Amino acid sequence: MGKGKPGRQSLKDRLAKAPAHLRADAPEMGKSYREKRKRWILAGLRVMRAPAVVALIVSMIFADKQFKFDPSDTIQHFESFAGDMSVTLGEIKESRKAVAYDIRYDDVGMNLLTSQGFLHACYQAARLEIGSGSLAAPVCSSFVYLSRGTSMRSALRPCGDESVGFVKDGNQLLCRTLIVLMIAMSVSAWVVLEQPKGSLMERHPKFEEWARMSNIVRQHVRMGNYGAPSQKPTWLYSNRPEIADILDFEQPSSADPSTRMVERYVDGRGVLRIKGGAHLKQSQSYPPWFGVALAKVRTRHADQIRREAKRTIRHNLKAAKSIPSNHRASASWIKQANLRPVLDFLTHG
């Protein structure tokens, strides 16, 4: 990384030359809430072996006073790719302060592919209370089998053909989503990442790297058992095994057998093809009961998770002192998540 473009500092150089209060290994510089929260997050990232560039981004966010950090301004759930906000509304019904984030609400400030939108998401994750929750549902269109003829993704080639725009964007979107979830996990948040069953996202190298950071488990559900018009088999990836309790809130299936998610047809050359069915788009929003069920599962385990989270934070603060920063992983994350523009934006505005 030291051989970058003239005038451009390597990540390691940036960290080495940063003021003491920006470094993950900085000594205690005071007892303000802002400083404590920064140290909790940096310690958590270091213990989970997150790439050092994530710690740098977090440090730069905390150094920027336009990002507010106050004990009265924390949140208890952050839902990205929120759409109709089913999960956020479920959290609110459980009397928790929740934030929804989606490109539909703001195509710049809530777009993970822009520097502003990505930093906004990182900031929201950094505001999460210890032991709170976060859900993400990265766009799956380039990872599902319907698009594999174009994306060229497969189990052996999970990154696909990045010369195709929506494939490159899909990879970048996934990597940035995982970084946001790392920040949430650093304060022991209960995170969930949702994908339709069969998505190749779990085969992506960065997904696998993220999954190893916190022993991620996979839970299978059918959205039809939560009020969806089709069965829609779905995978929920989580850092908490308690995610299995969502099965306790299943209801008799409401799925209509005539609902068509995919259609098969023969093209002009006599080749069998597959395309999205008439009901595919409406299946993309979570049914309201799914959001309620997920929130109720969190409520069931809330006290236990908060107790464990506080112990984890104390452990991380001690353990981080003897764990080196993970600089080796940073180069590939900078490239695949396209973080250079983000670092430049933080540096120069």
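The above is record 1. Record 2 follows with the same two-line structure.
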Amino acid sequence: MYVPLAFRQDDKHTVLNHIRRFSFATLVTGAGSDVQATHLPLLVSEQSDGGWCLVGHLAAANPQAAQLKDSQSMAIFQGPHAYITPSWYEAGNAVPTWNYVAVHVYGRLSVIADPSDVDQLLRDTVQVYERHQSMPWQVQSVDRSWMADLARAVVAFRLNVERVDAKWKLSQNHSESRRQSVIEGLRRRGTPDDLAIADLMERSLREVDG
């Protein structure tokens, strides 16, 4: 991903928080001219040495499953985004643009083959997404043999992280007055993404001010 220096996000904590919040990702793999993409949830797995990887699963019937073994891949985590109209600026040369947050994670895939590890991954996935429910659904509520059959119908995998491109494009290449004008315009327009980008822009300005 093209990331100009002004938009680059290098803080690991910020990047991992983004991945966890916007965990429904796009996994892209390619073998020659056969490029495959699947939309799916991915979990962060932090390691004792301070490193981290991504884990997930997809249907065994998915053609992309054949590309999971020792394959290079990219996972895309798209965050909030908003159209920026130049009418929010003071007089002067300007064109429309788009503000957004996105993280691309690159690395080599490996298949998780051990049935107990696959079972644990499925349980972890359920726990992550059920934890905000008032009455969380439990894996234990279904028959174990039926769950085992279901686990055999998926392929679990690990993405071993080799590179991360994180882009926080929040009008940092404009003056503070223009950025304030954009924030005001976004809040007036008021869609959920507009408000999320406005919040991120305000946070970015506070960081600049120290």
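The mean pLDDT is 94.
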